[in-house]
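Re: your question from the hallway

Yes, I did run it. Sequences:
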Amino acid sequence: MVHEPFDEFEIELKQALERRPAPPGLKRRLLVQRAARTRQREARSSFVLWQRLAASVVLVAALAGGLGWRRHEEEQRKGEQARQQVLTALRITSHALDHAQAQLAAHDRDSENARNSGSQN
Amino acid sequence: MAQAAQPDWQPDFEELVDQHQSMVFSLALRMTGDRGLAEEIAQDVFLEMDRHLAKLESPDHACFWLRRVTMSRSADALRRRKVRGMDLWVEIDERHGMRLEERSSPLGARLESLLATLPEPQRAALVLRYQEDLTPEEIAATLDAPVATVKSQLQRGLKLLRAKAATHLKEYVRGA
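Structure:
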């Protein structure tokens, strides 16, 4: 039926269904809405850009802070190690001095004993 | 239906609106029967087209895309209205209808009103057939339906419309 040429009824229907003109101002309203949406999109993208920038700054600051803290910890650890080494050295020196002093004292005592026994004879 | 791409073609929003606003508005109007709603649908469709402008490959593709999206948006609007319990096409002439001088002829206006009483799938097929002059294959592509279904909708719709016209238009002619 639909492939055959239009009959009288179909011709009347076709005439009845001619395209209607769009309401006046439809295009103007569309262009206004389109411009508003473009502005919104631009504002949103600039907001997103600032957000990304702020996030990058925070990330860099956190990384720098972490790095600084690690360096500080390392320095503290090295300082403590050096202090321990100095203390060990001091302990060794002190021990050596004590030992030398004990030897000297023993030597003095031996000398004095020898002197005393000589004078008694 | 495949639309041949034109590599050199650059879609221009304003030009496409100028070319197709009447088609988009008329399709939406005949599907919903509400001028206000049809205008809203037309605006939505063109703004949607603006978002997909880069995907349009040729003037034919743009036209096909506009028809398809308009029919789909109109069907959505009809479904929303049904959900809200509103009866479409009720007193449309009084509420949102076109002024008499806008109509092609009183007989045409009656036919248009009768078309509005058809079930939605039949109305869609007939509008695309007789307003847009599409073949059943093109209608099937636009509505994303099998060709056999479209042919059946066209036949049943036209038969129903003829039957309604036989009753109502006789009364109209007698009353004129």
